[in-house]
Specification:
Length: about 210
């Protein structure tokens, strides 16, 4: 079954706030300072558009491409756009494995996106997307830190519950959050900044592409 977030799109934002308050927003926006002087940005799986709106606010000139497989999520994102920003966002309603582009980007964002994929899937997709990043380009990533040692902690129980729910409703096959860092360094991305929220429960990372 292909991954499809259409069925959960309308209450995704509400559930996020109910379970995690503003923790995910804090994490997505933690390194917005890297976005201010950038021209071309690619976002994979933007969801309800919370990050997109902040991005367009801090950078009034950038052009943004979004790859998002859920038409409902794209609808929600479009509703949030201000009229003046409409022309600088292009939406591609396709799964990441179907995108073929000739363009390269100064910055790529993946917020709470890789948690939908297994280790093998990330290993398959990432080389293609790192090639789309220009040399010295920046990659922003945030996600939960899924630690076996802390499974009884309430936050980690929420992650298990979240996987159970999304596996049933969206068809994701992943069962745990794979650390992006290991995949990133294998693909010439160098960690240049990072931060943790709520004692390491969520991590925000900034990578720079070291090779062409
Ligand atoms: C867990 S949500 C995260 C959304 C958002 N980035 C955030 O910070 O909350 C994953 C998003 O990726 C999208 N998605 C999942 N699989 C995808 C795929 N193969 N290609 C493109 N988008 C995908 C979903 O539709 C959803 O909007």
């Amino acid at each position: 079954m292909a991954i499809n977030f259409n069925g959960v799109a309308r209450f995704y934002n509400f559930s996020e706030k109910f379970f995690f308050g503003n923790l995910l927003d804090r994490s997505r926006n933690r390194f917005l300072n890297y976005c201010t002087k950038i021209n071309s940005i690619l976002i994979l799986g933007e969801g309800c558009g919370q990050f997109l709106i902040e991005l367009l606010r801090v950078n009034e000139f950038c052009e943004v491409s979004i790859i998002e497989s859920s038409s409902e999520m794209i609808c929600i994102q479009k509703c949030l756009l201000l009229e003046k920003d409409i022309d600088r966002v292009s939406f591609h309603c396709i799964p990441i494995d179907e995108l073929i582009v000739s363009k390269s980007f100064d910055l790529i964002c993946t917020h709470f996106f890789w948690d939908c994929f297994s280790y093998r899937e990330i290993s398959t997709f990432l080389p293609y997307y790192t090639k789309l990043l220009k040399k010295d380009g920046i990659w922003l990533n945030s996600d939960f830190v899924d630690s076996d040692n802390r499974l009884l902690h309430a936050d980690f129980l929420k992650i298990r519950l979240m996987y159970w729910f999304f596996r049933i409703t969206t068809g994701i096959r992943a069962r745990k959050v794979e650390p992006f860092y290991h995949h990133a360094i294998k693909n010439s991305l160098q960690l240049i900044d990072h931060d943790e929220i709520r004692s390491g429960f969520i991590k925000s990372e900034v990578f720079k592409k070291s090779l062409n």
